[in-house]
Batch of 3 targets.
Target 1
Amino acid sequence: MAPLRGFEAKTLLFLVGLALISCGAQAARRGLVDNGATVFDVTTYGAKPDNGQTDNSMAFIQAWNAACKSTGAAKLVIPPGTFMTSEVFFYGPCTCQTPIIVEVEGTVLAQSDLSEFPDNQWISVRHVDSLIIQGQGTLHGQGEAVWKFDSCGGKTKCDSRLPATIVFSDVSNSIVQGISLVNSKGFNLKICDSSNFTVQNITITAPADSPNTDGIHISRSNQVTILGCTIGTGDDCISIGEGATNVSVSGITCGPGHGISIGSLGLRPDEHDVSGIVVKNCTLTNTTNGARIKSWHQSPRIQASNIVFEDLVMNEVRNPIFIDQHYGSKKKPGSSLVKIRDVHFKNIRGTTISTNAVALSCSDVVPCEGIELVDIDLSYTGGSTIQNFIFSSACEHAIATFSVNSGEFGPETLMDSRVAYCRESTSALWIQRWIRQFQGEDGVRRDTLGSIQFGHGFAG
């Protein structure tokens, strides 16, 4: 074979380079969608990334059905671009090899017309085992176009809410990771009747005044893990509802919003117990509540027990520690019958703009029991100009234990395992104890920095 001339050789090298680049890009794409998996790209089924001009719901559903009913490894891919849909249903059970993967790389917009969501949810995932939803893409609810139509009007008791962005029902052994949820019409992500479910490293964003835009809501589910998420909404960053058991929440950055809440509980007659909840290593900033448990009056007899809030940082939080068994029901007759017991608040520190750092407002029929507060250190930053302003806590129908384990406070502030049974809606009992603790024999108050241990003290 004759040797190649210089021009031909350069041309060949250029073509080989292009081929290598092409192969590299394809290999990268295969790596993104997992080697060996058959790719079900929504554009293959007719989806058009035309910035919201086309309703692509059927293309998404058809791509899912094809992936779900296949026999090998399967991945549904939403490629880069902006796609608009109305209601989308990803239903199983599936016959493909598990896990089935949904890769979200583009932006999906929800229809702004509320009539397109008769089931009050945008994306519904049901009866699926071993699902992974991942990617760097975004589910944009376009809630800004419809929040003004929220019929709840700020009412706490309301069944007519705007559509949730994505709802998982009867989904097991599954993971949601990496994606972003923006401006949901209603709740962002709901996990119901599911088990062994993990949500990690996702971002949820909505304005502080957006109505009922809870970040992640969990109900009637077991073994749920939420970790490493950044959530800012107009409602609870995370709400743990009835029937939730063995839930772990950690590494959450929350704010704005209403904090991390258990409840509200007891609204409906067929609710189930809540137990085994651990919330750790979270930071809450400019939220209306911090660690909260809330229940309704005239509730069914259920329990909320074995609950831990630990290693939390509060930044300008209004109600850092709050048990509210009169949630939305102050004018409604009848007491809450939700029994709250074995709740542990440990190592909660930071700042608050509330004059009541700790509020335990429990049921007069089934008082709270086994409430433990350990190493609570909060500073008031509400800007009061009143000299010797009392920074206190409120207690109603609770048996609570207060203690310091760190040993960093002096003997005048140390209160080892003191137990208070608060029967009346008053903080007087607690304040008197803390006056004795913080005021020496010379009458000088020792809490000169305005910080508060166990939710009691004086702002200097």
Note: The helical segments are 6-33, 57-68, 428-438.
Target 2
Amino acid sequence: MVLFFWPKYNFILPRKRKKTPIILLSTLHDFVEVFDDEKKLPTMIHDYNQTKFGVDVVDQCINNYTCRRITRRWPMIVFFNMIDIAAINSLNIWLDQNPDWNVGKKCFRRLFLEELSKSLTDSRNQRRVKQPRLAPKVKLALQSFGYELKPENLMVQDSIDNLVKTKKDAFFVHLILVV
């Protein structure tokens, strides 16, 4: 086992097998010391072993409900992981502040993530509903989420579509609407 000490950081390079080094970096421990037990493990490894259950639970929660998408770009992978961890932390804070929220329900994390996503996208969807030109798929999606499209916007869009027959007509209709 190789132990390194710098003023702010501790490095430990333990080797379980000859060809697999493990690097641990700690800012919590001021100096390298060995924990008093029969295994003679450094304190950094002992502290990690005591708290790794929490890491496993977080990984399990992320694997159940995640915002990850398939990508080969590592910054996106890091970003998706940060969002997943932020959602877990916000759920913990929410449950600490509101202990009687959805008591007795099995899938309270899924319900929380649904409400969180709706609250984060609501202002954008409200602005989107007011836009006069929306693609049909976007209109259907907004209506399925319960947003009401204004009928006058729909009528204006239909009347513009009837006026426009060529690119030249589209240019003139645009000029008329702008003026």
Note: Residues 171-179 have pLDDT under 50 and may be disordered.
Target 3
Amino acid sequence: MTKPNNSIHFTMKNLYSVITMR
């Protein structure tokens, strides 16, 4: 079960993590 919404959510979380880590 692959959902595009899930991918977007994951990407957003990843981006946030990178910004916070910076």
Note: The two ends are 33 Å apart (CA to CA).
